[in-house]
Specification:
heterodimer; A: alpha+beta; Rossmann fold; 2 domains; B: mainly alpha; MetI-like fold; 16 helices
Chain lengths: 369, 304
Amino acid sequence: MASIAIRGVKKNYAKTQVVHGVDLDFASGEFVVILGPSGCGKSTLLRMIAGLEEISDGTIAIDGTVVNRLEPRERGCAMVFQNYALYPHMSVAQNIGYSLKVAGVASAERAQRVQAVARVLELEHLLDRKPMALSGGQRQRVAMGRAMIREPKVFLFDEPLSNLDAKLRVQMRSEIRKLHRRLSATSVFVTHDQVEAMTLADRLVVMNGGRVEQVGTPAEVYSRPASRFVATFVGAPAMNMLEGTVTLDGLSLLGGSRKLNVSRTGVPVGSKVAVGIRPEAVRMVAPGTPGALTATVDLIEELGAGRVIYVDLDGVPFSIVTSETVHPEPGSSIGLQFAETDLHFFSSETGARLDVFKASVPEPAPATL
Amino acid sequence: MVERTPILNFFTHLILFVGFIFCVAPFAIVAIAASHNLKDVNDVPMSLLPGSDFWVNIKTAWTTADLGPKLLNSFIMAFGVAAGKVIISALTAFSIVYFRYPGRMLMFWLIFITLMLPLEVRIVPTYAVVANVLEPYQAIMDLTGLSWLIEKVSGVQVSLSLGLLNSYSGLILPLVATATGTFLYRQFFLTVPDELTEAARMDGAGALRFFVDILLPLSRNNMAALGTIMFLWAWNQYLWPLLITTDQSHAMAVTELKQLIPNVGGAPEWHIAMAGTLIVMLPPLIVVVLMQRWFVRGLIATEK
């Protein structure tokens, strides 16, 4: 178990900077997920912790020791790779035990420890097989076994589930979670899959363009996104965004056709803001219901348990998630209603969350369909 | 597009058969000629039915050309070249692919250039070097005045000399240092996923450990392919062994075949010459048959 402290870490490749000064603290035993779109620098950051990439600037400390100049093997980290990276010519047992062999552990003890790890991962019957003869999920488990056997202070996962099919992914997800509870080693897990991120994380780090956008529990990140990017990146379907302008008495939306009564402090009249509302927070009502927005249905996606309704709101694409068994015809009009307390406000310029807006007038109780 | 009709099958087999005859006929004629006696082998046209003197001719050829020690020489040389190539190629390719050091590309191109300078082109300077390996150093010392200085100070005249003529090292070393193997390995190493390298680093393996534990086992097919090709190539060398082995005890089997070819005015003993050819042809044939499986795998892309 170990804490990780990242201070002002930057990464340059030749002239391009891909990580722009990241500061993060991971507590001992914590399961941290770094989430971001591809190319956001999340894997680079992970590889810098592992020691596979040089740190251009700043420091990374594991358990209080700055590890910038240490070789991967000296850092006490173990890593699970996206493509598993199993040694194809070695059996499962040899793959798992290789780090011990390099470290010069006697073969009797090695075999015993391989057995112990294999028991935890239910790989005992596969120890003599070559990776080629294993299924994707089994290979994944071998890769984890290879990381576990070293009893590392830190576990690093680089998108380890992205090569598995959907069902296995869900299964491995819960296995990783169980494993973490059992070993309670500090774990850093990199992914671009937000479901993976939300379900696994004790704490979530959302990255974009080489910067940290937000750090928080999955619930915090979902309910109070710190930026417009986080708001649209976390949650599926993405949060709806409407452009608005600050007026004397509140906010004007959709080119002035709709007004929001919100109090404002410190935001000049005329400045642009983005107003976000989650598809899950929007209710469908009969068209023409007082206080409701009217939209035209574009497309319905059936999800089984619910459905996503894509509508056109005065030219702005908008989506609604509902569990009600309604099937409005494409082209028909529906009413949309939401509580103003569910709104998120972001600066149109910087994308930063604006908490100066407070919905002052509670929405009338929604009409039921 | 795989079509299977009886007519198409017939023609494909016919083409295959004709090709087969073309390939095998010369060998068959050699083998048949080796089984005739002196009179029959010189009949025009030669009878294509095997004669009865095969083993007699083989024995004669073996003793006349003293093939026993010559085959051993050939084997030592061919094996030495093959092994040397495999080792040196693996090491140079490892260095070029996995390490970043100044002059890396220069090294790469220097190795590349040797492709354009086969032994036949540089045979005179190579001979000079093999005749005295230290000659270049002597020349450098003479030019810089170092040998003059040493002679003045200590009174010892510097005369470096290490000849490799008529030795196995002289036969093998000049043939070992070429680029083909390095390229074969380089291409293979480039297909090894980076993650494997990184996994080994995470497991604590250093560069040499990674090379021995991971890269070499993975490239055993390449080794077999390269080893086989180089063994055949070295076995069939003629010019170089002829040039530097003046001493009969280091002569090669291939060059010694000359002994069996009838001289002007001598008896036209072609049956003996053919028998000798068969003997000399056999070891490479055995190597190919034994290595075939690995050999093919090493040359077709990568095993999945």
